[in-house]
Amino acid sequence: MSINLRTVYAFAREMYPKITTEPIQYGTAGFRGKAEFLDSVMFRMGVLATLRSRFRGGSVIGVMITASHNPEPDNGVKLIDPKGEMLEPSWETIATDLVNVSDQDLEQQVAKIIKDNQIDVASSSHVYVGMDNRYHSPRLLKAVSDGVIALKGNVREFGIVTTPMMHYFVVSANTKEAYGKPTEEGYYKKLISAFEELRDGCLEKGNYRNYLVFDGANGVGARKMLQFIKRMNKSLDITVINQGIGSGKINEDCGADYVKVQQRPPKSMPSVEPFTRCVSVDGDADRVVYFFTDDSGQFHLLDGDRIATLVAGYLMDLIKSCEINLRLGLVQTAYANGASTDYIENELKVPVSCVPTGVKHLHHKALEYDVGIYFEANGHGTIVFSDYAKSVIAQAVTTNPKAKTLLLLIDLINETVGDAISDMLLVETILNHKGWDVKDWISTYNDLPNRQLKIKVKDRNVITTTDAERICVKPVGLQDEINMAVSNYKRGRAFVRPSGTEDVVRVYAEAATKEDTENLSYEVGLLVQRLAGGVGPELTKPNNAHL
Ligand code: G16
Q1: Residue 547 pLDDT
Q2: Could you name the active-site residues (predicted)?
Q3: Is 282 annotated as a binding residue?
C-alpha cells in the first residue's frame, strides 16, 4: 500500500482548514471546546488514531466524539488505547503538536511522527469511532473518519454510543472477543446476563426495593438505558427521565455534574416517594451519582465517594468469605470528601491514595493493586482486577461457591473505564445483596459539607499545582492566603486548580458546617479572582460572610 502524505494536506485545506491560531490544549480527557472550532482537530485525530494503530501493530484504537458533562455547544474527543485505557501520555504531546501546526505544516508534522516513532505506514490500521447525541457530533465524526481515510486506514463507525461502550468495543476487538463481542448487543448481553445471574431471581430483600428513577441527562445514557430496559427480564424497574426528546438539552439543569455540583435534583424531577433511589449520569454516561429526598423534602447525595466505599466494603467482605488473599486498594482525588477518606482508612482499613484529577491517573494507580477501586467524587470510576486476582478467584470457585459471585462481578464491571450504567448495576447488586435502602447506605458515615465554585480568569494556566493538586504553586502567595483562610475553619480544607475541560478555575472547599463551607469557598473564590486575574462577575456573598 502506498501512502501519499500530500492527501492529508489536501483534505485539510479543502475540507477541514484550521480556523484558529489560538493554542489548543490537551485537557483532562482529550481536546474539548466550542464545536465550531473542532473540525480540523477531529480530522487530525483521525490521522493520529491511524498512526497510533500502526504504531501498536494494527491494534484497534478508539475515538469518541463527546464533550461529556459540558454544555450542548461544546464538543470534544477522547482517544482510546488498545487496552481500553486513555491515550498514553507521551502521545498526548504528539497529539497536541499535531492539532496546533498550520495546514501548510501538517504534511511535514505527520512525516515527523512517522519518522520519530518508526511507523510502518504500509501496515494495517483499525480505528473505531463513536459519538454522543449532540447535533454537531455527526459532522465531527465524518471529519475523524476522513482523517483515517486520508491515510488509507480502516474505519468502523458505531454511531451514537456511550463512551464506556466505545472502550468496551476496543478491548473486545483487541482481545479477540475474550472480553465480549465488539457490538452493541454484545455489550448489553455481557452486562445484563451477569446482573441477572447475580440477582438470582431475588428482586427485593430486606429494605431493598426493586425500583429507581434514572436521569439520563438528555444524553446518550438515556437512550441506552431504554435499550437495557427492553432487554432486561424485569430484573430492575426503572423510570427514565431527561431522555433527550423534545427541547431538553444535554446536561442542562440535569445529569450527574448538575446534581453533584448544585447539590439538588434535576429541575425536571417528578415527584416521587421519599427515599426513592434516583440515579443521574452525565452526557456520555461515564459518570454516575445517586440521590434521594427524605420525608422532610431534604436532598441527599450519594456520590462517587459513597459508591467507592460501598464497593470496597462489600468486596472486602466477599474476598474474606472466599478465604482468598488479595491486596485491595482505593484511589481518590483531592475532591474526595474528607469524611470518606477517614472512613476508608479508619473503618474499612483499606489503603487509599490520592492522585490528580482525571480517570487516566486513577486507572493507572489502581493497576498497582490486585483489586484496585477508583472513583472520583463526581462519580467517574470503576474497579480493576489484576490477572493474578482473576486466576486466584477462578481457582477459588472450584472449592468455594461464594467465589462465583466475584467472577460474575468481574463480568458486570466495565474494567476499561468508568461506566455509569455498569456502575449503577453494580451498586444495585450490592444494595440488593445487603438488603439496604438509601438510608442504610448513607448512614455508614457523615459527609463533611462541601462546595465547588467555577471562577472565570483571563488565563487559567496561570495556576499551577502540585501534590495531587492539593497545593497551588503559582501564582506565588496564593497558597499561603488559602492556608490562612482555611485555618479559621474547623475541619476546613480547600484547594484550587485549572479545569482541563472548561475555561475556568475550580475551587473546592469543605468544613465542619454548611455555613463555614459557604464562607470558606467564597473567601477562596475571592482570592483566586484577586491573585489569578479574575474576569467574571462578582461572587455572591453568602448571608453570613464575615468579609
Ligand atoms: C473528565 C474526566 C474526569 C474529570 C472531569 C473533570 O470527565 O474524564 O476524570 O474528573 O473531566 O475535569 P476538570 O475538572 O479538569 O474539568 P468527563 O465526564 O467530562 O469526561
Answers
A1: 63
A2: 68 (phosphoserine intermediate)
A3: yes
